[in-house]
């Protein structure tokens, strides 16, 4: 039984594809829109292999409002959007900030305008912990709660905080406008702002994972590429932080847990109509870069080479979540560990060195068929 129809922007990307899988497994109908800038259509086949269902797919750009209008018109049953479509690299955002604003902010405005025209009233926004910036500038803000003041330190984070503000203004305006007109139904306009921390891992089946087309920007995929010989060594940005080993502290969350967080946030919007709510999706456990390297080395079974380099502009000491609000209100908490993420990522990378540009291992596909 289909429980609802959801448009997922950026749905062939890493987190978007795992969220599309979670939605299908929860009996939602899923429509994906993605311009394939940093992803592959092959992920649609992998989703189908795992859950037996395939999302509808449109190759389109989130900045193209006319294309979005057409998609909504063809799917009048869509009542919600989960919005991932964005550029996402902190370092790159400092090099090409205007492109980040064009895509991340401009695309979100196009999406909201099209949603409004087609009366699509729920949006789950894939935000980021980078909106908080350096939370150590305030006392008692590590781990970071949702009431920590926003203060991003790089263009990527500023695009995310800008979009959070745009969504908040839009949803509140839609509700207020309905009240002024004396119309019922203003409460149907809702948004979840999901500030999540460092996604990691892959599907335990070994046939679906992160598949960056260029250089990965995240620590674990870079380590995995070192392990299979695609990269000579890992660059560790900053060895002079005020942490126990001098490297930055991050909160790593398994992508399966993160996908579930998006699913339960959507369910919460549809059931409780709260207006605009922000939730942290994290484990509450901070790990240094060196601790992550050690954990991944243990899975691979050998020491991987690394080199400490200068800090990148905009990087901060500690991004560890306080996930209490999501634990309480969404009844969501992480179930998988850092060690699970490392093991699943290594299984995916070791057996799929070319990512989605190769056939999945036959024994993995057969194992899925036996489970079905």
UniProtKB/TrEMBL annotation:
Signal peptide: none
Keyword Cell membrane set for record: no
Entry's Gene Ontology BP terms: galactose metabolic process
Cofactor requirements of the protein: NAD(+)
Biased composition (Basic and acidic residues): 360-372
Gene3D superfamilies: NAD(P)-binding Rossmann-like Domain, UDP-galactose 4-epimerase, domain 1
Pathways per UniProt: Carbohydrate metabolism; hexose metabolism; Carbohydrate metabolism; galactose metabolism
SUPFAM superfamilies for the chain: NAD(P)-binding Rossmann-fold domains
Region of interest (Disordered), ranges: 353-372
EC number assigned by the record: 5.1.3.2
Domain of life: Eukaryota
Catalytic activity: UDP-alpha-D-glucose = UDP-alpha-D-galactose
Pfam families to which the protein is assigned, alphabetical: Epimerase (PF01370)
Keywords: Carbohydrate metabolism, Galactose metabolism, Isomerase, NAD
Keyword Cell membrane: no
Coiled coil: none
One of the record's GO cellular component terms: cytosol
Family per similarity comment: In the N-terminal section; belongs to the NAD(P)-dependent epimerase/dehydratase family. In the C-terminal section; belongs to the aldose epimerase family.
Subunit structure, as described in the record: Homodimer.
Protein name according to UniProt: UDP-glucose 4-epimerase
